[in-house]
Amino acid sequence: MSNEKVSRTVMVTTVERPARKLIFLRHNATDYFSACEEVGCDWEGFYNSIPEKFDTAAGGLLPRFLIQPSTNGQAFFVEVPMDYDKPIPDKY
User: Where are the domains of the chain?
Assistant: First the structure.
């Protein structure tokens, strides 16, 4: 291993967002296609049909406090305003 010093530039942008909540669907898959086999692929259409959403639907690792035993912490999710109170299907 070399002792050569390496300099890197990192750009950071601060973004302020209003309070929000997360609608999510847990899965135990390790890739997108396996996750769709496990929970179906209708999650994306449902999430992206919510006009109040802050951004497009996504998938990833949930924060530690939302991970339940016997799950791997992976989920599909979308952020909505705190006052969002429209019906959400049971599996979400």
Answer: 20-81
